[in-house]
Design a protein that fits this description.
This protein is of the alpha+beta class and 211 residues long. It has six helices and five strands. The strands form two sheets. It has a three-stranded antiparallel sheet with strand order 2-4-5, with no helix packed on it.
Length: 211
């Protein structure tokens, strides 16, 4: 924690009266016991700053660090206008002549917005709970080696076009204001797709994948 303006003033004034670093530290402990005492280096830096600059305050506060180049006022304005036109704009394909990292920093640090991604979940029905309970009870009654005999297989179709990709569905809105996702996907049997099938055995063997 940085020392306050009043504490800096106390350090400098006490030093010019006592001409001793140790005396400044001791007086600081007596007058400001709730604050950790400064080191000799801290006292020396404050006195030196006062002698050279006329003040012991941190003149670099707010001016240190790298200059903001990417997050300029102009770029912030451009990103904000782009979001006004399209809340689902892509950070990589925005076409705004700003890098992906700069785009994301402007969104979160300057505009205080947050990217929300769509996650699809299966809706639970009223009869799902008793069915799951019955299955769990049945499963617990099986032999301990029953799991080794289980074979799990699945098949999935990867559409080559027109299918919504959850990872690419992103909407930018102010923080703590989640959006309502609403996407309509047209189903067509003529779409080109690749089907993949594989099987996982209880003993850890994997069969597939087969395309």
């Amino acid at each position: 924690m940085q020392i306050t303006k009043e504490q800096r003033t106390f350090i400098v004034e006490t030093y010019f009266q006592a001409k001793s670093f140790q005396q400044v530290i001791q007086s600081f402990q007596e007058h400001i016991p709730e604050r950790q005492s400064p080191t000799e280096m801290t006292v020396w830096r404050n006195v030196t700053a006062y002698r050279t600059e006329g003040t012991s305050l941190n003149l670099n506060k707010g001016r240190s660090g790298r200059k903001r180049t990417g997050r300029s006022e102009e770029n912030v304005r451009i990103v904000q206008e782009a979001l006004t036109e399209n809340l689902q704009i892509s950070a990589r394909k925005s076409g705004l002549d700003v890098t992906k990292s700069t785009f994301n920093r402007i969104i979160t640090l300057d505009l205080k917005w947050h990217p929300y991604k769509m996650h699809m979940r299966n809706k639970l029905l009223d009869n799902d709970l008793p069915r799951r309970l019955n299955f769990s009870q049945w499963f617990l009654q099986r032999n301990v080696r029953f799991v080794d005999d289980i074979v799990v297989c699945d098949e999935v179709a990867f559409h080559l076009n027109g299918k919504v990709n959850n990872h690419n569905v992103c909407t930018y809105v102010p923080k703590n204001q989640p959006p309502n996702f609403n996407f309509e996907v047209k189903i067509s049997r003529e779409r080109e797709k690749v089907s993949v099938w594989m099987r996982l055995c209880g003993n850890g063997h994997v069969i597939g994948p087969y395309f």
